[in-house]
Structure formats: structure tokens, C-alpha cells
Design goal:
Blueprint lengths: L7 H26 L4 H16 L3 E2 L2 E5 L4 E9 L16 E14 L4 E18 L20 H8 L3 E13 L4 E16 L4 E16 L5 E12 L2 E11 L2 E9 L6 E11 H7 L7 E13 L2 E16 L4 E14 L2 E11 L2 E10 L4 E12 H8 L11 E2 L1 E11 L3 E12 L9 E2 L1 E9 L4 E11 L2 E9 L5 E8 L4 H6 L8 E2 L2 E2 H13 L3 E5 L2 E4 L12
Parallel strand pairs: 5-6, 19-22
Antiparallel strand pairs: 1-3, 2-3, 3-4, 4-5, 6-7, 7-8, 8-9, 9-10, 10-11, 11-12, 12-13, 13-14, 14-15, 15-16, 16-17, 17-18, 18-20, 20-21, 21-23, 23-24, 24-25, 25-26, 26-30, 27-28, 29-30
Length: 547
């Protein structure tokens, strides 16, 4: 039986398409593998990036290793949008990267599924600018709004196993505020985990050379590090550390639904008030250290939280009241409108100050309703002593109790205090002091530097008196009446600390000098008898500025 043979034409027809396909495949491999096709791929990548970002894209060099499935891009530049329509000379582009390496992975050859195994960006530089009219250099993507996806969806769709940003640099320049934030040495890594159906990413961020600069404020060095986990429906910050100047904050946070985000967070902070004083250029800000910890929630655009704090080594630097070594503690409630400290407590000058403090975020308006208990007057008067107010010369001591209301704005601007105060005799006097008892009703306003005494009475073992009126830099109107059983009253009250001074019998140089000085500063001072002095405006006299 003869074997049936196939006609040569049919054999050629059957085998030629496969031969042509193989030859075509070889030609494609040789074309792209030799680098001859890199310009075509480069134009394709540029077109794709311009479509995604809306900005002009440039590449300095492009290469691909087919066997390793690895793409390398050198000199990637993405230009932003400027108000004039062109990139001004000397202005940084929106984004640059010295090198971008992308490692591809074939998940399914027949299903044509390819994902990113690794994406490494070396020296990424980002420059965001906001003009005075509010315009930015951020371009608008040409894709339709329906085609855009959240970053997390794109990230999970690409199935990136590892994302690394090395030696990054960011500059944010807001000419409208004005504010500038810039920093280098940005390190960011994102590693994939979980399963393909339930993927998650573990990330690390380290950025320690950030600096905030403003026209009004001193440049502030800032550092940031974070360890976090990201999955399709949520985000967890396992550990975040934020440092600014001499202060730093540790935080943890969790969010479980991107569609309806609800954040829960906890934090612990160590704040040095000197950072605020130096950065904000506000000499009225006290110095000291504050430790705080708390927790809160943020959902539906609303914020609320609670916590507690303690302050140590607090120093008040004001001319009218200067003191150091103060301590304070309390708990607080905070929301969108402001902050409340219902159990404020401070220890100062041998006594305590307790009460309720509130702050409204709108305008930084503060109010404190406080109760002062057993504060030593012998420690208060030196804190009030200054060149134009030699109050410590009285050498008085008492236990001060008061109920006061204080209001101020921001760093103690427009500070006002009003209240009633009772002075009682202490069980043990401070050295070289005399006891005094008193009752006062007063109001003090810091910015105009005006003290109003509605009523005041005081009594020492050798004298008693009453005070009412206004003490101000100009147009003071004080009515002072006091009686003393000692002729050398000023020597007994104001001249005690001059023990080494040479004295005449019955009177001291300090007595004579202070009496002349007091009469010069208070021209209404007059003597109505051997034991009676009065101070007030003379009838028909023009008010003189008080020192």
C-alpha cells in the first residue's frame, strides 16, 4: 500500500504563516532588544505620562532589559502649569527624578496580566507653588473625571510589590500666605503582603531634614518618620514620630473605610514652649516644658478628643509679672470650636491656682475663671517689682486668696484680669517682712497698662489705709488715705533692706530719697498731720503722667 503524500503547495501554505510569525517575533525582539525601538517606547511612555498628569513630560534616556523585564528611565521631568503658560527661567519643574527603575512581573501570559514587581525612584524632586491669586502650578490631567481613580485603587490594581523613594526633596512655596516648606533626604518604602485577593502594604517613611520658612517666622526644622499598613479598605499608623525644634510627638491612628472615613488616634507629646516663642517671634510666650497625651476621633468633617497635660519649669517673662519654676496640670476636651480645661491647676509661690480655662479657635480667644488659694504675698511682690513700680519695697507678707477672671487673645495679647482678693496673716512670716491684711476689688488691663481699684483696704501692725481710683501711664487718679503710728513710716516700710546705709538719728537716707522720689512720681502726696498721709488729685491740678 502506497503512503499518501501531501502536495508541496499545501505544505508551503501550512508552514509559511508560522515561519513568518516566528521571523516577525525574532525581528521585534532584535529591534527592541538592540535598543533601536527605545525611541518608540520612549514616545509611548511620554504620551502616557502626559495623559495621566496633564503636564509636559521629558525623558533624558530610556532603556529596557527584556530578559529581566526591567525598565530604567533617566532624567524624568514633568513640567507644571504656570500662570503665564510657560516655565519661567530659574523655576523648578513640578517633578524631576534622576532615575526611575521599574521591575515588571508577568502574572498571566495568556491572560495578558502584567504587574509591577518593584518601583524605585531615585532623587525625586517635587516643587509645588501657589501664586498670590491662588493659582497653582499643578496641571490638569486630560483624562475624563470618570476615568480617574483614587491613588489606593491604582496602587492595588498595579499590584506593586515594592515602592521605594530614595533621597527625595520637596518644596512647597505659597506666595499667597507666604509659606515655604522644603526638605531633602526623603526615604519612603512600601512592601506588599497578604494574598492577591486581600493584598496589603507595609510602609516606612523617614524624612528628617524638612524646614518650614515664613516671612514672619523663624525657620523651623521638622522631622517625620512613620510605620504604617495600608489595605484596600483602611489604613493603620502603627507608629508616627513628628519632631519640630526641641519638641516631638508620637502618634498612632486607624481608619477602616475610605468611602466613609472615621479616624481614631492616640498621641503622646513633649512640647518645649521655647519653640513657639522663637519661631513665632513672640517674646510674650512663656517658656517651659509640657507633657501631654490624649486620644480623639475625626469623622464626617468633625473632630473631638480629650487628654491631659502637665507643665514644668514654666517661666513668665512679663515686666509686670515675672516668675519662674511654675508648674501646672489638668485635663482637656477639644473639638472643632475650641478647647476646655475644666480642672486647671497650677502651683506657684507657695500656693495654688485652680479653675476652668477655655479657648475658642476663632481668634484664639482665652478665658480663665480661677481661684487663688494661700499664695504668699512675699513671693508675689518681687514678681511684680520693676523700675516704675517698686512695690516690693513694702516688705509685706500675707496669705492671698482671690477669685479672678482673666481674658486674653493669642500669646497674652489684650490681657485683662478682674476680681476680688483677701489677704490674711500667715502663721509664719517671711524673713524681714511685716504682716498685712487687706481686701481688694480690682481690674487690670495689660495693653493700656491701666489698674483700676474699685475698693481697697489694708492694715499692718503700725498702719492702715484705703485706696481707690485709677493708676495709668497718663492721667492717674488715685485716692489713697493711710494712717500710721510711726513718724518714720517710710523708714519702717521701705528702708529696712538698707541696713548698711548710714543714717541720721530718726531718719535714713533711704527714707529721704524715697520720700522725694515718691512725691516726684505722685505729686498729689501730702501730709495731713504727724500720722496721716493722703494721696489724690489736687483740686484744679492738671493730670501728670505717672512713671
Amino acid at each position: 500500500m502506497k503512503r499518501e503524500t501531501r502536495h508541496p503547495i499545501w505544505s508551503w501554505i501550512i508552514h509559511t504563516p508560522w515561519v513568518l510569525a516566528v521571523l516577525a517575533l525574532i525581528a521585534v525582539i532584535v529591534f527592541f532588544g538592540s535598543g533601536a525601538g527605545n525611541p518608540v517606547l520612549s514616545r509611548l511612555i511620554v504620551s502616557r505620562l502626559e495623559s495621566m498628569t496633564g503636564g509636559k513630560v521629558e525623558l533624558r534616556a530610556f532603556s529596557i532589559r527584556w530578559l529581566a523585564l526591567r525598565i530604567t528611565i533617566n532624567g524624568l521631568v514633568i513640567h507644571g502649569r504656570e500662570p503665564s503658560g510657560t516655565e519661567p527661567s530659574g523655576t523648578e519643574p513640578l517633578f524631576t527624578a534622576e532615575e526611575v527603575q521599574a521591575g515588571l512581573r508577568i502574572d498571566s501570559f495568556w491572560g495578558r496580566k502584567i504587574s509591577l514587581n518593584e518601583l524605585v525612584v531615585q532623587q525625586p524632586h517635587v516643587h509645588i507653588r501657589v501664586e498670590r491669586n491662588g493659582a497653582t502650578n499643578l496641571p490638569v490631567p486630560t483624562r475624563s473625571a470618570s476615568a480617574t481613580k483614587p491613588v489606593r485603587d491604582t496602587l492595588f490594581a498595579l499590584h506593586i510589590r515594592r515602592l521605594v523613594l530614595a533621597d527625595g526633596w520637596v518644596l512647597y512655596n505659597d506666595a499667597k500666605t507666604p509659606l515655604t516648606a522644603h526638605g531633602g533626604d526623603l526615604q519612603f518604602a512600601l512592601d506588599a503582603g497578604g494574598t492577591r485577593d486581600h493584598p496589603l502594604y507595609v510602609g516606612n517613611l523617614d524624612w528628617q531634614t524638612v524646614q518650614f520658612t515664613s516671612r514672619r517666622y523663624v525657620p523651623l526644622p521638622v522631622g517625620l518618620s512613620a510605620k504604617f499598613t495600608l489595605w484596600r479598605d483602611g489604613f493603620t499608623l502603627e507608629q508616627g514620630v513628628f519632631s519640630a525644634g526641641h519638641s516631638h510627638l508620637d502618634a498612632q491612628a486607624e481608619m477602616n473605610d475610605f468611602a466613609n472615613p472615621k479616624w481614631n488616634f492616640r498621641y503622646r507629646g513633649w512640647v518645649n514652649l521655647l519653640d513657639f516663642r522663637e519661631t513665632l517671634r513672640e517674646p510674650k510666650v512663656p517658656t517651659g516644658r509640657v507633657d501631654l497625651h490624649g486620644e480623639g476621633q475625626f469623622a464626617g468633617g468633625r473632630f473631638k478628643g480629650s487628654g491631659s497635660y502637665s507643665g514644668q519649669d514654666i517661666t513668665l517673662p512679663y515686666t509686670e509679672f515675672h516668675a519662674a519654676g511654675l508648674t501646672s496640670r489638668g485635663s482637656y476636651q477639644i473639638d472643632d470650636r475650641g478647647l476646655e480645661v475644666p480642672d486647671f491647676s497650677a502651683s506657684a509661690m507657695g500656693g495654688s491656682v485652680t479653675g476652668r480655662v477655655t479657648m475658642r479657635f476663632d481668634g484664639l480667644q482665652f478665658r480663665a475663671d480661677t481661684h487663688v488659694q494661700n499664695v504668699r504675698l512675699a513671693a508675689v511682690l518681687p514678681a511684680m517689682e520693676h523700675r516704675d513700680f517698686p512695690i516690693d519695697e513694702l516688705h509685706w507678707d500675707a496669705l492671698v486668696t482671690a477669685d479672678t477672671v482673666e481674658t486674653w487673645i493669642g500669646p497674652f495679647r489684650l490681657f485683662e484680669i478682674s476680681g476680688r482678693s483677701i489677704w490674711d496673716t500667715p502663721n509664719q512670716l517671711a524673713g524681714r517682712h511685716q504682716p498685712v491684711t487687706a481686701a481688694w476689688k480690682f481690674r487690670y488691663r495689660y495693653d493700656p497698662n491701666v489698674l483700676s481699684v474699685d475698693s481697697g483696704e489694708f492694715e499692718t501692725p503700725s498702719s492702715r489705709g484705703s485706696v481707690d481710683g485709677i493708676l495709668a501711664p497718663r492721667n492717674s487718679m488715685l485716692n489713697v488715705r493711710f494712717e500710721t503710728s510711726q513718724t518714720n513710716f517710710w523708714q519702717c516700710t521701705m528702708g529696712r533692706h538698707n541696713r548698711g546705709a548710714r543714717r541720721r538719728p530718726g531718719i535714713s537716707r533711704a527714707h529721704t530719697r524715697r520720700t522725694r522720689e515718691l512725691r516726684r512720681r505722685l505729686p498729689g502726696l501730702s501730709r495731713r498731720g504727724p500720722h496721716l498721709f493722703t494721696l489724690g488729685a489736687r483740686p484744679g491740678a492738671r493730670p501728670r503722667p505717672a512713671q
